[in-house]
Amino acid sequence: MEPAPEDLDVQAYCRSLALQQIQMLTRLAEIAMQLAEAEGARAIAAQVRAAAPKADEAAVQDARAEAQEAGMAFSRFSRSVHRSLALRSRAADSLCARDKAQAADRAAARQDRRDRHRNEVEGVLRHMIWDEIGDFSRGARAVAAQARAVQPKADEAAVQDARAEAQEAGMAFSRFSRSVHRSLALRGRAADSLCARDKAQAADRAAARQDRRDRHRNEVEGVLRHMIWDEIGDFSRVEALHAELEERVEDLYDDETLRVEDRPLGSVMAGLACGLGLTEEWGRWSPAWPGTPDPARPAGDAAKVAVERARRRDAAVAAVERSFADLPDPARIPGIRAGLAARVREADVIAWLDTETTQTVARRLCRSLGIDSYNCFEKPAIADTG
């Protein structure tokens, strides 16, 4: 199955499922109603023949048998109509209640979605579609057979064949309509569970997004302030740039509908630096914060994954070691190098190497080793490709 898109609106998706369910139940009720009407008319006509004063005993018995058969078919199709209408009524009530409950927060329903939601709903839908296609075709065949059976010029053999086909197709319709009812009921419960779970998780997602947004903002502003302080020699200009930076960051992150936190840090900082007239200065800092998304996980067999992880580990170690020349006490270097060698073999660092850029890993390693992380980010000899 295809994964759910990240911007899937679960509430809108569930609403479309409810509308589709109402349409399908309406169609089932219409087909069952046509069958019930035809069988009811046949039962009445047979009863009239059975009550005719001049009918012989054999004709009366045949008419009564036909009336009984048609009456049972009428009852069966009537129950199908009742079930379809009852399910449709519940689906409509649920839809109206959901719309009313979600009226206030429907505009804010755009949140992160999870693949298992779509997989659960799609699995039920596939089962329903498999049953539904056969269901409608059999209902149409039963209606057509009933129409042939009541043609005025049809001979007795053709009428009997048509009635037999109508009965067979009608039984099949009833059987498959029950399957559709069950499938729609399962889908309705799955959709209700999906919407309830999505609504319950909305607050947690909003809080997680705000935390991520705050971290993103703090890092962007902190790095650019540090860059301005290091690159600009005029103290008065530094203060002016810091004030302008604060204003621009405030404007950028103030709009909650703009998902700045989903963009790479390097891309956001590059845009702000250009707006501040610091393009050249940012060019000396940009290798540390690439403007591209995080690298993909290493792919291939175990040997290829090991080689790629080793390459990324060596690149991160080289980035950290570039800071050694600026350490105030060179005697610390052997101890830090030993600590670095042990650190890069720990599970969390291996996980970083699989998903983060080289400079992100280097920055985290610097912090864990007590090194000024900004010393790690002098322009490397080769571009950082993750």
TrEMBL record:
This is Uncharacterized protein. It comes from Inquilinus limosus.
